[in-house]
Structure formats: C-alpha cells, structure tokens
Write a structure and sequence with these properties.
Elements: H1 2-61, H2 65-103
Helix pairs in contact: 1-2
Length: 104
C-alpha cells in the first residue's frame, strides 16, 4: 500500500510540474503574439497618421494667406500628437509583453 501511495504522489507531482511548464510556455507564446500585435498596430497607426497628414496638407493647399499657415500648423500639431500617442501605446504594449514574458 505504501508503494502505491508513493507512486501516486510522485505521479501527481510530476503532472503538476509539467502543467506549470506548459503554462509558462503558453505565457511566452502569448507574450510573443502580444508583441507581434503591438508591432502591427504601431505600423498601422503610423500609416494612418501619414495618410491623415497628407490629406490635411492637401486641404491646406487649397487655402491662402493666414488661413493656409494656420491650417499647416494645426495639421503638424495633430500629426505630432498622433505620433506621440501611437509611440506611447506601442511602448506600453511592449512593456506589458515583456512583463508577461518575465512572469512566465
């Protein structure tokens, strides 16, 4: 009877350690996919910002004088703010993925 109990306990322990290893591998995979998603989102955001900036520039070209200058400054400010927001979101997602990988 003692051998049976020892075998059962050893088997349960081995399964639990294996489960932890599998969970750690899953967390690493999730961190990788999270990082890939963050990179894709950042690239898409930069492309959108570039397109929006070009569209704003085209609108500004239609104007003249002070209105044109004001339009260009507003467009540049919006582009700069959008780039900063996209970079901040990317950096946060990158940090989250790194923390998730470290925790695994």
């Amino acid at each position: 009877m003692n051998r049976l109990m020892i075998t059962l306990v050893a088997s349960l322990f081995a399964m639990s350690v294996g489960g932890v290893a599998i969970a750690a591998d899953t967390a690493k995979m999730d961190a990788k996919s999270m990082m890939a998603t963050a990179e894709g989102d950042y690239k898409a955001a930069k492309a959108k910002i570039h397109g929006d900036a070009e569209a704003a520039e085209a609108q500004c070209k239609k104007m003249t004088g002070d209105a044109k200058k004001s339009c260009k400054k507003d467009a540049e400010a919006k582009e700069k703010a959008a780039k900063a927001d996209a970079k901040a979101a990317y950096d946060k997602a990158k940090a989250d993925a790194k923390a998730m990988k470290k925790a695994a």
